[in-house]
Amino acid sequence: MTIVEKILARASGKEKVAINEIVMAKVDVAMSHENADVVLRSFRDIGVKKVWDPRRIVILFDHRIPADSEKTAQTHKRLREFVREQGIEHFYDLKEGICHQVLAELGHDRPGEVLVGTDSHTTTHGAFGTFATGIGGTEMSGVWATGELWLKVPESIKITVHGSFKKYVSAKDLILHIIGTLGADGADYCSVEFHGETIGSMSIASRMVLSNLSMEMGAKVAFVLPDDKTVQYVRQRSDKKFEVVLPDADAAYVQTLEVDAGELSSQVACPHTVDNVKPIKDIAGLKIDQALIGSCTNGRLEDLAIAAEIIGDKKVHNEVRLLVIPASRRVYLEALAKGYIETFVKAGGLVLNPGCGPCLGAHQGLLAPGEVCIATTNRNFKGRMGSPEASVYLASPATVACSALEGEVVEPC
Amino acid sequence: MLIKGRVYLFGDDINTDVIYPGKYLSITTDRGEMAKHCFEAVYPEFLKTAQRGDIIVAGKNFGCGSSREQAATCLKYFGVAAVVAESFARIFYRNAINLGLPVLIAKGIKGFTEHGQTLEVDLVSGAIRNTETGGSMTAQGVPEFVLEILTSGGLIPYLRKKLGIAGQEV
Ligand code: SF4
């Protein structure tokens, strides 16, 4: 059996499950951010008085923090009241950071468990061998009420990565390359498993980049096989019991893909789809107005480290706005201690509070018509970061940092 | 369940930012208000020319992108009768079902109909008829469990029934 078959069998109390079978799965962790407000509305409609388990629900604010409008302020207020009313144990108000980083940091990600979130990039948590997927608000209200949800057992795609990256090439370039190869719907409804020694030698943060962006090829879940590194990371943060689940050697896959990491150069996803991927050199020289380092994809310490190393004591190009957004408060503190934040500020960058920033087009750095932004985020859809006439290019932290210095897209070297 | 409606045609990879722009995500509860912003940023003509009861027909990967339920909600409360597409992104597909908005996966729907023609869609059998051309085709049937949610009017009424919660319909 594949990982996903094993986890879903266990979560639904079965020995075995078949592809396409619909199972009722028990949920271990249910996460929502500001859109808990949508969940709340439906939860009230169901008419249940108490949530099924206040210890398993996580609510936090990250998408519009501090509140970008009176409406959001009301949303935050309503949810704080709900959290108190229900005794929700894990509530992180607007100070912690982006959900997909905070959950991992604070010990909510464990191998073999079922984690659902009202956010599409919930696939990120598959980096710990967790069945983690995004669901809608109404669906989550059902989880709040009953603790379970219906899931169709997906087919699996096996991606094996060998070799070591060239300097400045990283997990972001690898996954962009894979999305460019498979297409925006290439893994629709599927479970993706990442295998191979390249993945094994990756940091936890880099593994999270792979699982995070797999959503952009339609993946339902995206697993990195849990290993000692995973267990150690989780153990340091959670004292709950868990069991590592791995695929059988004879597991069946609908598709397999082999990638040689050593062959890769820096990649970019061009407007307006994430699968419009090219080697960065194809667009070198393109003038940029904004450079953004942050998000649940690439706002972690190693991302800020590489950016700070590249920037050093140089200055951001005069006509470029560099925005840096640490993914979480912890990342922010570590980056402060290591001097990265000072580097960014001295270079003329703007460091924003941990959170989603302009990634979803709500506030904090939106684009005007005709403007070009190079970002470490995960979506470049038309109108995603402000004007529908603006262009967003997705690339690695190294590429974004180099481009910010030059005022145009450059290949890091 | 037989649905009859005029076709509103879209292409491939229509994402949720296109269906429901991010700047309106702060609208979390007012469903009527959400319906006023369907496709507003990229296809503003939709709000002027689409009508209640229209069937959206689209290419592959309809609803890709974020998990925002508003994308399915705005279509439902606008009055879209059903969405028929070559394929759907999974979260949108689930959201639509859970909200009681019928969605059908119909390989070959592209080219089967033009904008403005009328379709008859049978949810149970998946049979689709183009009343203008007289052509017919079959969509993927909806699994029984999913059909139960759809015919209940969505997940909320379905759960209310299952949990034995009586009272006002929602
Ligand atoms: S950083 Fe962007 S992609 Fe990640 S959770 Fe926030 S809005 Fe979504």
Question: What can you see in these coordinates?
Answer:
The complex is a heterodimer of chains A (413) and B (170). With 413 residues, chain A is of the alpha/beta class. In chain A, 31% of the residues lie in helices and 18% in strands. Chain A has 2 domains: 3-259, 2-Layer Sandwich (Aconitase, domain 3); 266-406, Aconitase, domain 3. Chain A has helices at residues 3-11, 36-46, 70-86, 99-105, 137-146, 171-182, 197-200, 204-214, 228-235, 295-298, 301-311, 329-337, 340-346, 397-406; strands at residues 22-26, 29-32, 57-60, 90-92, 114-117, 131-134, 148-152, 156-162, 191-195, 221-224, 255-260, 267-269, 277-279, 290-293, 321-324, 350-351, 372-375, 391-394. The radius of gyration of chain A is 20 Å and the shape is globular. Chain A starts with a helix and ends in a 7-residue tail after the last helix. Chain B has a single domain (2-163), classed as Aconitase, domain 4 (Alpha-Beta Barrel), CATH 3.20.19.10. Chain B is 29% helix and 18% strand. Chain B has 7 helices and 7 strands; from the N terminus they run βαααβαβαββββαα. Chain B has a 7-stranded mixed sheet. In chain B, strand 2, helix 4 (70-78) and strand 3 form a beta-alpha-beta unit. The longest helix of chain B has 10 residues, at 90-99. Chain B is globular. Bound molecules: iron/sulfur cluster (SF4). Residues 63, 98, 100, 119, 121, 295-296, 356, 359-360, 377-378 of chain A line the site of iron/sulfur cluster (SF4).
List the topology elements.
The complex is a heterodimer of chains A (413) and B (170).
Chain A: H1 3-11, E1 22-26, E2 29-32, H2 36-46, E3 57-60, H3 70-86, E4 90-92, H4 99-105, E5 114-117, E6 131-134, H5 137-146, E7 148-152, E8 156-162, H6 171-182, E9 191-195, H7 197-200, H8 204-214, E10 221-224, H9 228-235, E11 255-260, E12 267-269, E13 277-279, E14 290-293, H10 295-298, H11 301-311, E15 321-324, H12 329-337, H13 340-346, E16 350-351, E17 372-375, E18 391-394, H14 397-406
Parallel strand pairs in A: 2-3, 2-5, 3-4, 5-6, 8-9, 8-11, 9-10, 14-15, 14-17, 15-16, 17-18
Antiparallel strand pairs in A: 1-7, 12-13
Helix pairs in contact in A: 2-5, 6-8, 11-13, 11-14
Chain B: E1 2-9, H1 16-19, H2 31-34, H3 45-49, E2 55-58, H4 70-78, E3 82-85, H5 90-99, E4 103-105, E5 118-122, E6 127-130, E7 136-138, H6 144-152, H7 155-162
The complex binds iron/sulfur cluster.
Residues 63, 98, 100, 119, 121, 295-296, 356, 359-360, 377-378 of chain A line the site of iron/sulfur cluster.
